[in-house]
Amino acid sequence: MRIGYGWDSHEFKAGIPLRIGGVTLPHSHGLGGHSDGDVLLHALTDALLGAVAAPDIGTLFPPSDAKWKGADSAVFLREALARASAAGYSIINVDSTLILAAPKIGPHAAAIRESVAKLLNIPSNCVGLKAKTPEGMGTDNAAIAHAVVLLREKP
Ligand code: MG
């Protein structure tokens, strides 16, 4: 078995779509970044890549490369999944925590878990998602995501 861990943060910017876990959430601000800023998919991508000791997301998809401007972050996650699979592993489960002041994730949690499950080809009861507000952190202008993944060797 293998374990992987990923972390990411993006800054809120007014007037752009908010993408979290491949889902567009209704909100006044989205997450800035070179790609679509999907902080959760970026953390999951790094968790998967880390689990098989592959290069990290920034190395595989450098922000300096114009090709990734505005990219759907599902592309990054699919590549990480392909690398894990090529290394001989499949996913047992993933778990994640989002830390953001707004919007409330609760009403969207099921849709986000469903979306991530679909992208990873695993059942949604194998996708954990918790949401926290950044109490005392002074990071209300950012969204932060932590993710862990557990892999098993394919038969
Ligand atoms: Mg990122």
Keyphrases for this structure?
155 residues; alpha+beta; 60s Ribosomal Protein L30, Chain: A; 5-stranded mixed β-sheet; two-stranded antiparallel ribbon; 4 helices; binds magnesium ion
Explain how this protein is built.
- This protein is of the alpha+beta class.
- The protein has one domain: 2-C-methyl-D-erythritol 2,4-cyclodiphosphate synthase (60s Ribosomal Protein L30, Chain: A), CATH 3.30.1330.
- 27% of the residues lie in helices and 31% in strands.
- The chain is built from four helices and seven strands, in the order ββββαααβαββ.
- It has helices at 39-51, 57-60, 74-86, 109-120, and strands at 2-14, 18-20, 23-25, 29-31, 89-99, 130-132, 142-153.
- The chain is globular.
- The structure holds magnesium ion.
- Residues 8, 10, 33, 39, 42 line the site of magnesium ion.
Mean pLDDT: 96
Which fold name fills CATH's third level, the topology? Answer: 60s Ribosomal Protein L30, Chain: A
Helix/strand order: EEEEHHHEHEE
Strand pairing plus helix content: what structural class?
Answer: alpha+beta
Range of strand content: 25-35%
Shape: globular
Total number of strands: 7
CATH 2nd-level architecture: 2-Layer Sandwich
Number of DSSP helices?
4
Bound small molecules, deduplicated: magnesium ion
Total discrete domains: 1
The first-level CATH class is given as Alpha Beta
CATH superfamily: 2-C-methyl-D-erythritol 2,4-cyclodiphosphate synthase
Name the helicity range: 25-40%
Distance between the termini: 12 Å
Q: Which stretches are low in confidence, meaning pLDDT under 50 for 5 or more residues running? A: none
